[in-house]
Amino acid sequence: MENHEFNGLFTDLSVIKGVGNQSYNKYCRLVGKEKVRIIDLLWHFPHKIVQRNNISKIRDLRDGEIQTICGKIEKHKKGFRNAPHQFDIYDGTGILNLIYFKLPFYMESKLKVGNTKYISGKVKEIGSKKQIAHPDLILSLDEFSSQRKFEPIYSLTSGLSNKQIIQTIENIFKFIDRMETFIDWHSESFLRENGWKGIIETLKDIHLPDIDYFNDLYENPTRRLAYDEVLINQIKIEHIRRLRMKSNGIKMSKENPIIDKLSKRLPFKLSESQNKAINQIYADMSKPNQMIRLLQGDVGSGKTMVSFFSGLKCIFSGYQFALMSPTEILAKQHYNNFKRFASITKFKCCLLTSSTTAEDRKNISEKIRNGEIHAIIGTHSLFQENINYKNLGLVVIDEQHRFGVHQRLSLQKKSVAGKADLLLMTATPIPRTLIQIKYGDIDVSELENLPNRKEVKTTIVSITKITTIIERLNNICNHKNKVFWICPQIQSNDNNNMSVNDRYDFLKQNMKQNISIIHGKMSENDRDSQMNDFLEDRTNILVATSVIEVGIDIKAANIIVIENANNFGLSQIHQLRGRVGRNDQASWCILLHDNTLNEIAKNRLKIIRDSNDGYKIAKEDMLIRGYGDIFGYRQSGFRDFKVLNEALISEIGKKAEKDSKLILDGILNSNEYKIRYKRLFDFYEAHEFKYIVS
């Protein structure tokens, strides 16, 4: 990102007053990052606003709600052993029971019998009694008069209070106020017409509110941010739409003799939905217009086989077929499977990844350029500048959300007239309303789950039970009961998350079985060696990061342990869980957590425990956390929505689509527009702007 006034927001949170080493580590855990910047905390929005100055009578208190009362401390029953401290508060209408299981020393002087206090917290009704355990606030009249009237309520992590987050947020805006004035990308007249404020004022209204903007009577300030996010995508979609309109696509052959022959040689029968998807794709490929189609299907629904049949049609029609995967492991698996699948043909296939040696790359590049190689399978290496195709006709992007728009465009530009057919595949179900926002008027094929796929039994277990888990695994683990053990990170940090290397060492000391390890920082040779040991039964346990998340097909594996499962998105956990349950044995998924779960995190894990339906899981997760976490992790070159929700899509989407046409015209024809809207892309860390203006 270029140096301009936004840079201050992308500095480390440690520059903010009051954020020391200990609290910094808690903020890392809160936002799920090893390093946390100011902007990362500003994206951590409150989920509720509490009006603390709205005083209720004790008789009117409602169960389960955060409320404030003013009353006199009538009685104090001191705690003893396991019994809590109890205070009776009276306001003339009833008695509130105040509970402290462990009374902080400093609170004793604030809770004297006879004193009148303002008390705020979550009310619980137990029979006819009303109770607040460990209240949020206990204030005198003077303290209460200076208290913020509307308090944002955040999801928390262990050791971090709501009050601490608010104080840090206040210090952030003091820090911002000392910076250079921010110049918004939208004009003042545009903001005024829509009733919106500048970007910094909007963030301030979200985190330091003067109203309860969750109340339908008020404009929610997140609406402006949702519009910006959709606008970025609509500008990119409009840019791609204009590129497509410049020329026709590629018309493929309508005849499929080899494809029909291969279909009959398969050791299994294609499902009804697979056949339907193949027919839809073939019909598109036979037209003179460019195909852009999304193939959507849950884990194990057979998307890869559909893509192989699509690739064969392309090759049979005289063009080259490229399949791009997000990881080398998956690319290699696709390469080996495609070679076996097309073994009766004379078509030649190659594998191209970052680990391909310089000599091999040179040889492969020449064969791709002269058309000797028909199917090219690999990672992001496929779209590098020194790779030139003779006649690329079909591009398949596996797990398309891992790749940015610019990466897809770069690969397409290498095709015949820049108009190769494009097939995007995802195992993360995307609602149709969101598809329209992300891709515009794209066609969609959906696959149903393959029949006879066994359900994976899922349990949620505390990390404190790890000894019991290891004992059970020692008893059942063998070459027919292989185990994946997934850790969220490669290196240790202070977030109490066990690294993949540490867990590998721990399991080697405590397990009877031989163990393999793979992660993203290992060399390709080392990863291959470890994976081959696992495949060929020299080891029965594979400790790994989420590098094995997509596509890895090891049928003997039927147990997966996912450590610190609350650090993963639900769709990501569902993908990981899809690595097991591929044989006729019973299969299990164990979700380990570290006992610091808040209510939202607990509810999310219950969703994954209670369902094996990927679409339902994604939908439920979005209801809890919004569209921002549908994929569960940050993608290189692809930004998830942080603000957008179902209620905003239709109205904001239409407006952003209309505005994007005029804004794109301005970007392409006006230097002022170009400078202004580069700020928009920079602020949301969308990296495609340079491809739009190039």
List keywords for this structure.
694 residues; globular; 4 domains; 6-stranded parallel β-sheet; 23 helices; OB fold (Dihydrolipoamide Acetyltransferase, E2P)
Helix % is 25-40%
Based on the coordinates given, report the CATH architecture of the largest domain.
3-Layer(aba) Sandwich
Number of helices: 23
Quickly name the level 1 CATH class of the largest domain.
Alpha Beta
Distance between the termini: 17 Å
- Helix-and-strand structural type: alpha/beta
- Count of distinct structural domains: 4
Mean pLDDT: 84
Question: Order of strands across the widest beta sheet?
Answer: 11-12-10-13-14-9-15
Query: Rough shape?
Result: globular
| CATH H level, superfamily name of the largest domain | P-loop containing nucleotide triphosphate hydrolases
What value does the Rg take, in angstroms?
Answer: 29 Å
Structural description of this entry:
This protein has 694 residues and is α/β, with parallel strands linked by helices. It folds into four domains: 5-48 and 157-220, no CATH class; 53-147, Beta Barrel (OB fold (Dihydrolipoamide Acetyltransferase, E2P)); 257-447, Rossmann fold; 456-611, Rossmann fold, CATH 3.40.50. Helix content is 38%, strand content 17%. It has 23 helices and 21 strands. A seven-stranded parallel beta sheet has the order 11-12-10-13-14-9-15, sandwiched between helices. A six-stranded parallel beta sheet has the order 16-21-20-17-19-18, with helices on both faces. α14 packs parallel to α21 and α19 (599-610) packs antiparallel against α20 (614-625). The chain is globular, with a radius of gyration of 29 Å. The chain starts with 20 loop residues before the first helix and ends with a helix. Residues 627-639 have low confidence and may be disordered.
